[in-house]
Amino acid sequence: MGRVVLVTGVSRGLGSRFARLVSADPGVDRVIGVDVVPPRGDMGDVRFIRADIRNPVITKVIAGEEVDTVVHLSVLASPGSAGGRSSMKELNVIGTMQLLAACQKAPGLRHLVVKSSAEVYGSSSRDPAMFREDMGPKRMPRSGFAKDAIEVEGYVRGFARRRPEVSVTMLRPATLIGPTAGSPMVQYFRLPVLPTVLGFDARLQFLHESDLLDALRHATTSGVHGTFNVAGEGVLMLSQAVRRLGKPSVSLPGFAFNSVGQMLRRSRVADFPPDQQSYLTFGRGVDTRRMRDVLGFVPAYTTEAAFEDLCRELGPGLVSPERVATVEGAVAHALGSARG
Amino acid sequence: MADAEIIPLGTRGRPGRGTGSNKPSAAARSLAGGAAKRPGDARPTPKKRTAPPRPVDEPAETPGEAAVGPADERVEQPVKEAPEPTYDGLQEASAVEPDPGTAGATSGTSTRDRAPGAGIPVSDWLNAFTHASKEVFGEAWEPRLAQFLAFLRRRVTGDYAVDEYGFDREVTQRFFLAAVRPIAQKWFRVEVRGAENIPVEGGALVVSNHSGTLPVDGLMTAVSIHDHTGRHLRPLGADLVFRLPLVGEIARKGGATLACNDDAERMLSGGELVGVWPEGFKGIGKPYSERYKLQRFGRGGFVSAALRTGVPIVPCSVVGAEEIYPLVGNIPSLARLLGVPYIPITPFFPLLGPLGLVPLPSKWLIEFGEPIRTDSYDEGAADDPMLVFNVTDQVRETIQQTLYSLLMQRRSVFF
């Protein structure tokens, strides 16, 4: 008998793609998608049940459908998609609490997969170069998605203690980018002029969206217990990323950067969560040794390749590599002819 | 070539300099060429104006870019090559205006002469540039210039790699080390001893004394190690370094990372040559009267990192750094306000302003001692506090004794 997988947050891009992907897996019998709004587009074999995970009705769904695997994907990274910060927090924290309460009551549950985020490590000047899974944040994030993710992880750990026979896989993906990803960092890179923090250059680490899907599928089917950082190989500096995009950037001192961020947020040009400033100042790196050795997953894209994919989608900027190469050729030619 | 002929003085009319009003001197008349010889002609200026552009024109056309030909366009030719369009208008005005002695025409001429780069043809610029690049890059300048251009292109398009700590090898070698090297060689005249004690490969921990108010000793040690072994020293810095704008950015690009056990062990097990200054701010910010007295070596975290990874500890003693900024005072209240460990007062610093930031040219000696092996200890050695204290003391004593012997050998502070 195959497995019955319940996926939350299925009407969002990541959730629907994951549900379709996992329904094609031979070891999976049925996939049930849950969300508050119906998904757009074709869902294939996925059965959609309209239910709010903040509501105890989810208990009946889990029990009635004999679900043995729950994949919790509706921990949202940006307030824009949830319609405001307060409803985002409600969905993230209360939704997770209710879902876990329902899971605890489900005797048939064998496996829980939760997508958290590498943002639980925060970003500060006291950070180690690479965070391992057993490290905590050096400066506790006090707001935004990072705080939600920390709270969600706390509830998941509590659940794992109370139901030791359920294997709990928690993934902490690095900054998600890709052609269809709508994460705050992708929105940032879409800005025509990129604000950066004067005197700081953040180390960035990316995960391609297709790699996140693969990692989630791998975690769902392999059932490895534990918490894992998921990120592409290598590190890209913010200045380097800006140059690769070929877009102009403006270096602003910290306080001015803050107000520009507020302006962007208010004018709804881009989701610019307050914790993004510290990320763009200090950056963050996560150690992926456990992902390779214990989880047994290797992303197809390195950080560099994932960013290149985004660059391709955004198109060449003002200072495209072709133009620079042309200028270089012209200068070399002029010097050569001057000598001859 | 009529202009070049030798003008015999005193043979054409009255000697002297002329009145300057309506009668130019004989010498001036002959200099102005044949047309100006008409006496009583009060218009020498238009001739002067048309005469100078000619020699400017000629070399501009030699590169053979275009045979622009027509004589009437000649006057405008240099204007086309020079980038300033405003200048074009001026030139035209002075060419059209027939009125001779007006100020406008004269100033037009003089502005033209004064304009930067005006009249210097492109080929001359290129020649100068090729000469300059020969000077800078040497005889094989062409491939090296091409390399440099490729380097610039890589920098502009972001096509380079950094490691996971943010270390930018290319920019460190080309700029940071190149900027520090002359200071080490010419200003401090760093003398390195025992460079053979630095392992050529594999992880190792260089432990050094810290002094000099600003961490100049770290930079000098890094450049000395690179020049003697070709390896990059990866310094471990206090979190203040990474909190400061610009300083933190440069430190990360130069290969530094935060001084914490996680990063130290990660770097050492990655086979890097890691530098650590366990005295920290207590060492670097100690008053001049306590020079060359080692402070407490932290909590011995560096020893446990070396024990866990089994890498050798290379003691490094730096003499000379204490004298670069003799710290005679401190402003603790201001330091607290700014969140830094101290605000130094040196004999020159607040007194001479930025000039006080120039370090005194003391003579430096850097000695690397024999490596202390840590791989012979058994598994749990890093968790044995007594062993860690003992090894810490051993390293500290080695450095202190080397400092004393180096001080004995040094003839004077500055030579």
From TrEMBL, chain A:
Pfam families linked: Epimerase (PF01370)
Domain NAD-dependent epimerase/dehydratase: 5-231
SUPFAM superfamilies for the chain: NAD(P)-binding Rossmann-fold domains (SSF51735)
InterPro entries reported for this sequence: Epimerase_deHydtase, Lipid_A_modif_metabolic_enz, NAD(P)-bd_dom_sf
Protein name: NAD-dependent epimerase/dehydratase family protein
Species whose genome carries this gene: Nocardioides jiangsuensis
From TrEMBL, chain B:
Keywords, sorted A to Z: Acyltransferase, Transferase
SUPFAM superfamilies xref list: Glycerol-3-phosphate (1)-acyltransferase (SSF69593)
Compositional bias ranges of the Basic and acidic residues kind: 71-83
Domain Phospholipid/glycerol acyltransferase: 204-321
Organism of this sequence: Nocardioides jiangsuensis
Name the UniProt record assigns to this protein: 1-acyl-sn-glycerol-3-phosphate acyltransferase
Pfam families recorded: Acyltransferase (PF01553)
Chain residue ranges for the region called Disordered: 1-119
GO molecular-function term, one example from the UniProt record: acyltransferase activity
Keyword set includes Zinc: no
Bias kind Low complexity: ranges: 25-36, 101-110
